[in-house]
Description:
single chain, alpha/beta, Rossmann fold, seven-stranded parallel β-sheet, four-stranded mixed β-sheet, 13 helices, 19% strand, globular
Amino acid sequence: xxxxxxxxxxxxxxxxxxxxxxxxxxxxxxxxxxxxxxxxxxxxxxxxxxxxxxxxxxxxxxxxxxxxxxxxxxxxxxxxxxxxxxxxxxxxxxxxxxxxxxxxxxxxxxxxxxxxxxxxxxxxxxxxxxxxxxxxxxxxxxxxxxxxxxxxxxxxxxxxxxxxxxxxxxxxxxxxxxxxxxxxxxxxxxxxxxxxxxxxxxxxxxxxxxxxxxxxxxxxxxxxxxxxxxxxxxxxxxxxxxxxxxxxxxxxxxxxxxxxxxxxxxxxxxxxxxxxxxxxxxxxxxxxxxxxxxxxxxxxxxxxxxxxxxxxxxxxxxxxxxxxxxxxxxxxxxxxxxxxxx
Length: 342
């Protein structure tokens, strides 16, 4: 039986990729999006080109409580992706960040609670809920940093330490989503995502750094590296993330009420510039000039997800290698340069 999906932020990077997968599978899909994000209208046009009239669009804001209640009332599955996504923006305008991420998520949960469908709710959270992790011992190597005591990365049991307005707002949503399972029995799942990348990502300097670097080198923009370029993140290709969403829904009897760290894990670690630049220069076949700047406040030297819980409980693990995923993203940007130069 076809399920009714609602994707908040469905015309964004992750959302549009998931909508494409769902409509190709024949699912009943509604996008709920205010279309404020750069690239969102381009993603909508792309989705229409795949399968015309195969999804519904509600152009509205998650801060609009009545609109989200009306959108949710008959849905079986809600994938909550809408949000304010940049730490820097949250520092400049913390109230708006709170209203979108914390209150917006609360609105989604209340709409789900008040519906008569008891829908599955997947929440796109972030590794930023763990804070700066300043007390963790880190080893500096020639091209990267490594944990001294966490060979598998940071697990879901690591203490929460919301840092920055963005960390606080996303963390508030994270805990509300978890608690709505405990208190109201909603089948909710929190996915604390690491660095997700792939096609349809209109990256900018303070968000979506892998895409931003590729877009910048292919359009002749200047790249700035803050710190020493050895900062490490575990990176995950978007299709692997979507597999995790599908796995949560398929195994909701296990996943309901759970939190999962979803990233590339220790096998897909990449330092921001020292290890990424050789790959990018090889694809470009030339050296890339950069400007070096000071460390930014709160910039973690290393964050790597421990993904063993998702592997064990959901049977999920990344399939796309870092090199293959970056090549796919590079090819997409190269093939769609007109989207970035107009």
